């Protein structure tokens, strides 16, 4: 009798614990293009956030930590846009694999393990958000009308359901991270999660802080960042800088529509036209008929020129040529001013700059067998995967992020704000200025930080667990340009160590 009771007890425990584990149906067991052994478990699939079969289905790819999944943080990664898939981060930045272009061209890429994957030290969720982006979809097109506040609410709903499906990670420290327009996504979502914790939402999310890289933050600071950046990087002369500063009275954002200021800003636009906005060191062949484009593939060019801005990734996975369009909007007033009109015209849209040709990611993610392996809906159901979509109608309705940052950091949440210092899309000058504007006491005076025995950038630490950090020589997508350095500061910060 006692033996039967013990058997039933053990059986009931097994059933209990088997129900409190990652759903088996989402386990990724193989990936086309990869022939090795996964360094850790990987899961992917959809979570319906509104219980309506035709509603919002958000797609995630979850990589379990290669170190200690039970205690390592869970980190949510969001790419920007708005409208860009977080597979950008997975494929090109800090995912578990490096992707090698297939041979012949257009064939399935080959995958190799990434020595600098952020899953080395954390569990990481790559989320396509909002609905309509990447593999996330709805059968109701009206669901693609959204904005800052709705996106934060939807992603919070996703997290609550995700942690219910993965209860073994509920007690892990949780961080929200992202880059570019995720400078809006991250603080709005963190605020939503913090509010949910206070309101007693279940399960309780163990939010500890957040990370923003080269992030859009505030129209005034972002709008005033470009001219000082261009001058500091020797892209405009002292004369131009002094003229535009005098005409705009030092405020290029508020006074941009003034006749005199606007005329002087045209000098800046002319000087910057043709540069790669995502990394000013990198050759740019965007503009049809220019010397830059005609020089493409010219082996007579000096090696020093050919090497400019080349990523330190072990494999060259992204080609910066005329092709894939990535949204770039130079923030001025409530809309945008495109500083590169000839590039925009070539792209066929005044709001898009053709910088990236993401053939590797597109080829892999639009392969039928890949979609089957990662549990994504086929192309016949949701269409092709695009790095950045035009499906969604997005409204920036949350205003400046500075009050969000102040509120979150004063509640005790840790914040790391990092910037690749050669990014002209969201220049470090704006991020440095707004973090300083909070008025927090400086606890760690401006100093270099070290990676692999070399100066990797500079940082300044403030009260309320706020850190601003630059990465020397990196562009807009920092882990793509400086993978080792990115893993270094990421792992140290997550562990609470000095960077």
From TrEMBL:
<dbReference type="GO" id="GO:0016747">
    <property type="term" value="F:acyltransferase activity, transferring groups other than amino-acyl groups"/>
</dbReference>
<keyword id="KW-0732">Signal</keyword>
<keyword id="KW-0325">Glycoprotein</keyword>
<dbReference type="Pfam" id="PF00450">
    <property type="entry name" value="Peptidase_S10"/>
</dbReference>
<keyword id="KW-0865">Zymogen</keyword>
<comment type="function">
    <text>Probable carboxypeptidase.</text>
</comment>
<feature type="signal peptide">
    <location>
        <begin position="1"/>
        <end position="21"/>
    </location>
</feature>
<protein>
    <recommendedName>
        <fullName>Serine carboxypeptidase 1</fullName>
        <ecNumber>3.4.16.5</ecNumber>
    </recommendedName>
</protein>
<keyword id="KW-0378">Hydrolase</keyword>
<dbReference type="InterPro" id="IPR029058">
    <property type="entry name" value="AB_hydrolase_fold"/>
</dbReference>
<dbReference type="GO" id="GO:0004185">
    <property type="term" value="F:serine-type carboxypeptidase activity"/>
</dbReference>
<keyword id="KW-0121">Carboxypeptidase</keyword>
<dbReference type="GO" id="GO:0005576">
    <property type="term" value="C:extracellular region"/>
</dbReference>
<dbReference type="GO" id="GO:0006508">
    <property type="term" value="P:proteolysis"/>
</dbReference>
<dbReference type="InterPro" id="IPR001563">
    <property type="entry name" value="Peptidase_S10"/>
</dbReference>
<dbReference type="InterPro" id="IPR033124">
    <property type="entry name" value="Ser_caboxypep_his_AS"/>
</dbReference>
<dbReference type="GO" id="GO:0019748">
    <property type="term" value="P:secondary metabolic process"/>
</dbReference>
<comment type="similarity">
    <text>Belongs to the peptidase S10 family.</text>
</comment>
<keyword id="KW-0645">Protease</keyword>
<keyword id="KW-1015">Disulfide bond</keyword>
